[in-house]
Write a structure and sequence with these properties.
Oligomer: single chain
Shape: globular
Radius of gyration: 21 Å
Distance between the termini: 55 Å
Largest sheet: 6 strands, mixed
Order of helices and strands: EHEHEEEHEEHHHEHHEEHHHEEEEH
Helix content: 25-40%
């Protein structure tokens, strides 16, 4: 079974963007049982043993499942930083990499790091896959029977095609032209790519994640602050991130920022696409804001929320993906924000628990990603970037300012 990659899938695959899910496990993890669970997981998701290859004379890429291909094998490591930077060979397969990382100075704790190409996973499907892995682990540990029937469809249709059918070619061309004019008239500000060289990537190409966290009490205060202001938590967190980013620019007065916000399309399809289907089923909507150097996160969050709702109602969010081949030439975003929502805690055998779960897109692209999630009552914002474009000092300072703003709002 195979099909051509859709434009947005092909662009993500060409950029080598990976989606990494890290679970912090407390207790004695049985690697043998986890290996068995992984084998059953491939039975549920045959695409995990697939590959991304060029299969025609024009060099267009295809994704392929092969029942005879070897599935992923559980790996072992001792350095989480090295694992998120591991070399990947999606052209040979498999598409999933799973490694147990045990650090010598952290007895009784381990990390399970799962890596998939972003082209074929999104936050919803990855969380469902993650939950299925640990459900299999729990059943195998308890000696219960395990069923691993494939989730259908094994290889779903491309989201680009599903959304493009909603709009005429003329409407999509007009949409792209309008967005281009907006940015030509007032170009958005970008964080300087201080690690780049001569307009291209610098020599030190490492993938990094820097986190900002709020414990359960502070997270609850943030929720109340958002609701008191008539905002969603997502809108307020976006306001925190954008005002923090704005503070890094020395200019006084309003500065144009372009925020790309992820939008889950699964429930907006007809019929809806189940979360269990492994698929890149998220689009983005590009929100342009004028942010003053004295702007308050609540004000910025409110402006963003108004535009986001308007883009959903008008179909602009769907058009961004439907017109993806033409959107590639548009102005890059100042910040890419993805809110993956509340992550469900897996139920594991006694003496074992997952203390934390994080999800992050990582690639050597000149963009800064912010992933917002909640787990066990805590809020986390992971800033992910490539040192081929940005220095550690730049993103550390952005994280520091976001953390300070979060603290001020919840004190």
């Amino acid at each position: 079974m195979e099909r051509l990659l859709a434009p947005h899938e092909a662009a993500i695959a060409a950029a080598g963007v990976r989606l990494v899910l890290r679970s912090e496990v407390v207790g004695v993890l049985d690697d043998e049982v986890l290996s068995q669970a992984l084998a059953h997981l491939v039975g549920c998701y045959p695409l995990l043993a697939g590959s991304i290859t060029a299969r025609d004379g024009q060099g267009r890429q295809r994704v392929r499942t092969d029942p005879s291909a070897p599935g992923p094998v559980l790996g072992r490591g001792a350095d989480p930083g090295r694992e998120i930077n591991a070399s990947l060979a999606w052209e040979r397969g498999p598409l999933l990499r799973v490694t147990v990382v045990r650090e010598p100075d952290r007895p009784g704790r381990s990390r399970v790091v799962m890596t998939l190409p972003r082209a074929f996973a999104d936050a919803m499907s990855y969380q469902a896959l993650h939950g299925r892995l640990w459900a299999l682990y729990a059943d195998l540990s308890a000696g219960r029977p395990v069923w691993a029937d494939p989730v259908r469809p094994v290889l779903g249709p491309a989201l680009d095609d599903l959304l493009a059918a909603r709009f005429s070619a003329g409407r999509l061309r007009g949409f792209v032209a309008d967005r281009g004019r907006l940015d030509a008239e007032s170009p958005p500000s970008l964080l300087p790519a201080e690690a780049s060289r001569d307009g291209g990537p610098g020599p030190d190409a490492s993938l990094r994640v820097i986190g900002v966290e709020a414990g359960p009490d502070r997270c609850e205060r943030l929720v109340r602050r958002a609701h008191d202001a008539g905002l969603t938590v997502n809108a307020l967190v976006c306001g925190i991130l954008l005002t923090s980013l704005r503070s890094l620019f020395p200019a006084r007065g309003p500065v144009r920022l372009l925020c790309t916000t992820a939008v889950d399309m699964r429930r907006r399809l007809s019929p809806p696409m189940p979360a269990e289907v492994l698929q890149s089923a998220a689009t983005t909507t590009s929100i342009r804001l004028m942010v003053d150097d004295r702007a308050h996160p609540v004000e910025v969050g409110r402006d963003l929320d108004v535009q986001l709702r308007a883009d959903l109602d008008s179909g602009a969010a769907a058009m961004e993906l439907a017109a993806f081949p033409h959107m590639l030439d548009q102005h890059p975003p100042s910040l890419v924000i993805t809110n993956v929502g509340t992550i469900t805690e897996p139920v594991l055998p006694g003496g074992l628990r997952i203390d934390d779960v994080r999800l992050a897109p990582l690639g050597h692209v000149p963009m800064v990603f912010a992933v917002v999630s909640r787990y066990r009552g805590r809020l986390a914002v992971d800033l992910t970037y490539s040192t081929a474009w940005y220095t550690d000092a730049q993103i550390t300072e952005l994280a520091r300012r976001a953390s300070a703003t979060l603290h001020d709002l919840t004190t």
